[in-house]
Give the backbone structure.
Amino acid sequence: MKGALLTALALVLLSIEAVLVRTFGFEVTRIDVTVAIIVFVAVRAKTIEGALTSFAIGYLVDVFTGRPSGLYPALAVLVFLLARAAAQLLDGKSRLGYALFAASATVGHSLVAFLLMWLTSKDADGRVLSLSAAPAQALLTGVVAALLFPLLSKIEPGERVDVGRYA
């Protein structure tokens, strides 16, 4: 149920992001609200629930962007798994820690997306995805993550409880 609620929230935030990007004329950078939600899920949710939620959110990004089918669901699950592993070492439970974690995950997400688009697309000339936009995108995502933290904490209030090593 929480995964469905987070996916619905991602749909609403992607719609708002699309309007803001068009309104303010961002051509290269964007506010990556989906990565912020995926990082939160990696810190708080159980493994299967988080992976499925990340896949669903990635699929929504796929639908919104029109990029090669399957790119963003795979990237979302990859970001989830890497953020989950990094959450063992980093503090993502406070607002500031979560915002910094989401910002750094956005940089990694952008780099991998750029690499995969460059490898798989004939017309990937850098206009759509640019590495120069990564710092601005990380900053915007960090700010939005800090603003979303109280809302996300109400949806998933507890800390992650894994029963076993592979839970």
User: Anything to note?
Assistant: The chain has one domain: 2-22+29-155. Confidence is low (pLDDT under 50) at residues 163-167. The domain at 2-22+29-155 is CATH 1.10.1760 (Arp2/3 complex 21 kDa subunit ARPC3). Residues 95-120 form the longest helix (26 residues).
